[in-house]
Amino acid sequence: MNLVFNENLRELQVDLAKVDAGIEQIRGFCRPVLNGEHYLSGEEVCKALRITKRTLQQYRYDGLVSFVALPGKMLYKESDILALLQQNYTPALHENRGNLLPL
Predict the structure, then answer these.
(1) In sequence order, what are the residues at sequence separation of 6 or more whose Cβ sits closer than 8 angstroms to the Cβ of residue 40?
(2) Mean model confidence pLDDT for the chain
(3) Is the pLDDT of residue 16 over 90?
(4) pLDDT tens digits for 40-78?
(5) Taking burial as the number of CB atoms within 10 A of a residue's CB, which of 13, 17, 58, 103 is the most buried?
(6) Rounded to an integer, what distance in angstroms lies between the CA atom of residue 52 and that of residue 7?
(7) CA distances from 73 to 6, 41, 83, 100, 103 (A)
(8) More confident: 60 or 5
């Protein structure tokens, strides 16, 4: 009987670990909304734009990105980041013929 209980307990632990992993994954996609606006951390902005923290700091210094400064944290409006990308978008001059350059 004790063996069956231990096996059930192990199965329960495995299931709980899966649930916990699923919750963490969902939390990664969900960001709090303040006044209808999503805010991104500096790390999230760097990852999305594929830039370094130093480059993001330079963007702030140059006034390219708006930000909210809190003690120990910088936050960026998602809409401001999208607007920055849209403002700096340059359409292709020639039709892409399927030739992709290696990254």
Answers:
(1) 31, 48, 75, 76, 77, 78, 81
(2) 84
(3) no
(4) 999 999 999 999 999 999 999 999 999 999 999 999 999
(5) 58
(6) 48
(7) 45, 8, 22, 38, 32
(8) 60
**Closest among 26, 36, 30 to 77, alpha carbons compared:** 36
- Contact partners, residue 85, CB within 8 Å, separation at least 6: 49
Q: 33 — phi, psi (to 5°)?
A: -105, 125
Is pLDDT above 60 for 1?
no
Unique residue bearing structure tokens 């709980």: 16
| Percentages (nearest 5) of helix, strand, coil residues in the chain | 55, 15, 30
In this structure, the number of other CB atoms found within 10 A of the CB of residue 57 comes to 13
**What does the pLDDT read at residue 51?**
96
Q: In what order do the strands lie in the sheet with 37-41?
A: 33-34, 37-41, 73-77, 68-70
Give dist(CA 24, CA 30) in Å, integer.
Answer: 10
pLDDT for res 53: 96
